[in-house]
Amino acid sequence: MRITLVTDSTSDLPQDLRGRLGVRVVPLYVNLSGAIYRDWEEITPTEIFQKVREGAAFPTTSQPSPEDFARVYREALEEADHVLSLHISGKLSGTVQSAELAAQEFPGRVTVVDTQAASLGVGMMVLRAKELLEEGQSLEAVLAELERLRRDHFVRFSVATLEFLKRGGRIGGAQAFLGTLLNLKPVLTLKEGRVEAAGRARGEKKAREEILKAFRAWAEGRKRIRAYFLYSGDEDAVAALRQEVLASGLPVEEALVSELGAVIASHTGPGTYGFYAYSL
Known about the structure:
Elements: E1 3-8, H1 15-21, E2 24-26, E3 29-32, E4 35-38, H2 45-53, E5 60-62, H3 66-76, E6 82-87, H4 95-103, E7 110-114, H5 120-134, H6 139-151, E8 154-158, H7 163-167, H8 173-181, E9 184-191, E10 194-202, H9 204-219, E11 225-231, H10 236-246, E12 252-259, H11 262-268, E13 273-279
Parallel strand pairs: 1-2, 1-6, 6-7, 11-12
Antiparallel strand pairs: 3-4, 3-5, 8-9, 8-13, 9-10, 11-13
Helix pairs in contact: 2-11, 3-4, 5-6
């Protein structure tokens, strides 16, 4: 059975990579200063941050429509027997619900997966699915592996400013003010598809130490680990953490470093950094 992979733009896979792999991507949308832009296609995080610094209102984001998905599924099924469609957590976006509605138009030919992840958490599952399909694995085997990754992976990230999280309703204004005043860096994770606090540290170095400590605990006893590093605005934001993870003595192989797309960056702000990992 020929299977084509579809994802959404919040998977944050670099455009050249997804092009080489033949992965189809349905973009989300960014609303900035009254204009609507397609994520990864028409606007960059740098442009968003610059406009906000110049006084523009904070951006908002929206999901693709079921019609957006149906169009991509229709095109994909002209070349394949089945579509495997992997998306951002349904607790963070309505994207997966739009995909499920569109899939009803193609009964038995589209499988939609809520990864319960975001950014490269989605991306790493897309890449793992592609790897298994190229090995000749069945759809059932691929879905079983994706369920394993969904249950068992590592993710931590931090942000340079609390303002974007506050505007998005993640934290209250008083907490944002206090965190900025005391140079507190939140350490965040995703649990069952929701963003949750995993700790906080005073300063950048302490935040990295906390992330690495949590990673060591998760990695104990694992023989082979793939790491996917993410950043927003400037790759230097993730450079120190990446270096420490790769030099940790743990069995880590770097799989990818990618900038956040405009949609995810709209909710996290500039200077965000972190990584996802899973074991083989």
